[in-house]
Amino acid sequence: MSYDVVVIGSGPGGYGCAIKAAQIGLKIAVVEKRPTFGGTCLNVGCIPSKALLYASEVYAEVNRGFDELGFKVSKPNLDLIKMMDYKQLVIDSNTNGVAFLFKKNKIDAFIGMGKILATGKVEVTAENGTKQILKTRNIVIATGSDIAAIPGVEVDFDEKVIVSSTGALSFEEVPQSIIIVGAGVIGSELGSVWHRLGAKVEVIEFLDKALGTMDGEISKQFQKLMEKQGISYKFGAKVIDVKKNSRGAVVTFKKIQSDEVKKIEADVVLVATGRCPYTEGVGLQTVGVALDECGRVKIDGHWRTNVRGIYAIGDVVKGPMLAHKAASEGITVAEVLAGQAGDVNFDVIPSVVYTQPEVASVGRTEEELRAAGIKYKIGKFPFTASGRARAMMHTDGFVKILACSRTDRVLGGHILGFGASEMIHEIAILMEFGGSSEDLGRTCHAHPTMSEAVREAALAIFAKPIHL
Ligand SMILES: Cc1cc2nc3c(=O)[nH]c(=O)nc-3n(C[C@H](O)[C@H](O)[C@H](O)COP(=O)(O)OP(=O)(O)OC[C@H]3O[C@@H](n4cnc5c(N)ncnc54)[C@H](O)[C@@H]3O)c2cc1C
C-alpha cells in the first residue's frame, strides 16, 4: 500500500495530524505500538489524570460536607476499585473515539512498532512478529515522550512502590504516605489526587518553589494553598537515592544550601521529574535523522527534519510537552504537507495545572519579562472580591495580567482560581489578536461570572478595578 503520509505514533500530535491530513484529502496511515490509540495523553496522561482529579475532588468536597450551604450529607465511602473502573471507562471512550475518527476519515491504522527503513519506507512489526512495509511520500514522527528518571540517580521503577505517573494512576489501594519527587505539574496533580483520598503527601523539590516555570507570585500563592490543604514541601533538596525498604521506600536527599544529607520514608514514592523524548526503535539512525543536544528530533521552523520527506511533531521535538501543543503542530504539519500555509504561535500556548484551585497561564511571566528587559504594567484582581466566587465559596486565588508599558499590548496572563483552565482562553485569544488591557477591560463580561475578575485585572492596568 502506498500513502501520502505515514504518521508514527497516535497521540494528540499524531492523530491530530492524521485526521487533518485526511480531511484535506491526503491518503494517510497511522502506526501505533500500543494496543489502543491516543498516546500518552489518552492512555496514561491527561485523560486518566483528569478523571481521577475530578472523582477525588468530588469525594473531597462531599467528605468536607456542605453545612454552610444548609444541608448535611453523610461521609462518603471510598470504593477505589470502582473509581479506577470509572477512570478506565473514560480512557476507553476516548481511545475508541480516536479509532472511530480514523475509520470515519478513511485512515489506515496499524497496531505495531513503526520503524523507518529508508525515506518513504516504514516497516510495521505487529506483536506476533508479522512485518509489513508501508510506502509513503512523507513520514511524520510523532512518537512522544517517556518518563524521565532523576538525573544521576538510578531508579528501579516497579510501578507499585517506586512509581512513575503511570503507576500513580493505578494504585490498588490508597497508600498511607507518598513521597513525590518533583513539585511540577504532574507531581502537583497526582499529589492532590492521593492527598484528597487520604494519603499523607510530602513533596521534595530541587528548586526553591513549586511549579518552577510558572509566574513566581502565582507559584508562591499556589504553594501556600496546597500547604493549607495539608501537602508538605521540602525545597532546595537534591534527591540522591531512591530505594525500596521493609516499610515501602526510602528517599535520600541532600539540602542544596547546607549539603546536609537526610532520609525520609513512605509507603510509595512517585518520581515526577519530567519526561524525555521517545525515539527508541524508530530507525532514526538508519536514515540519519539528527537529534538535538536534549535528544529531541531536530526540526526547522516547518517541522522538517534534516532528512527530506521526514517531519516531527509533539513531545519528541522542542517546546513545551503539552497535548495541545502537539495537536496544534500535528494539524499545522498536515496543512504544510498539503501545500497550504500553516503556523503555530508559540508565544500563545496556554498551560494548566488541574489542582483545586487550578493554575492557568499563557504568555510571559513577570520573571521572563524582567529578564528580557521589557517594561511592563501589572493588573491584579483577587477572587475574594468576586461576587460569583463568594457565591460558590471559591474565593482562593487571583488573576494577574501583564501588559507592555509602552503599547498596552497584553504579554501574559496568569490565573490561580476555580475554573482557571477555562478562563485563560479569553486572555489567549486576546493575545492571539495582539489585544491590549484596554480591549479586555472595555469588553462587557456577563455578571456574575468568575471571568469578571479577568476584566477587573485588565481594568487595574489602564484604569482602576471597580470592585476593589
Ligand atoms: C500523567 C500525565 C498527565 C498529563 N496531563 C496533561 C494535561 O493535562 N494537559 C496537557 O496538555 N498535557 C498533559 N500531559 C502531557 C501530554 O500527555 C503530552 O504532551 C502529549 O501526550 C504529547 O503528545 P504526542 O502526540 O507528542 O505524544 P504521545 O501522546 O506520547 O504519543 C506518542 C505515541 O507514539 C507511540 N509510539 C512511540 N514510538 C512508536 C513506534 N516506533 N511505533 C509506533 N508507535 C510508537 C507511543 O506508543 C504513543 O502512543 C500529561 C502527561 C502525563 C504523563
State the domain count.
Answer: 3
Shape designation: globular
Which regions contain 5 or more consecutive residues with pLDDT less than 50?
A: none
Number of helices: 14
Q: What integer is the average pLDDT?
A: 97
Descriptive account of the structure:
The radius of gyration is 23 Å and the shape is globular. The mean pLDDT is 97. The chain has three domains: 2-147 and 276-337, FAD/NAD(P)-binding domain; 162-273, FAD/NAD(P)-binding domain (3-Layer(bba) Sandwich); 351-461, 2-Layer Sandwich (Enolase-like, domain 1), CATH 3.30.390. The strands form five sheets. Strands 1, 2, 3, 4, 5, 6 and 17 form a seven-stranded mixed beta sheet that branches. The chain has 14 helices and 22 strands. It is an alpha/beta fold and 468 residues long. The protein is 32% helix and 25% strand. The structure holds flavin-adenine dinucleotide (FAD). Residues 8-14, 31-34, 39-41, 45-46, 49, 113-114, 142-145, 165, 186, 278, 281-282, 314-315, 321-324, 326, 354 line the site of flavin-adenine dinucleotide. Flavin-adenine dinucleotide binds at residues 8-14, 31-34, 39-41, 45-46, 49, 113-114, 142-145, 165, 186, 278, 281-282, 314-315, 321-324, 326, 354.
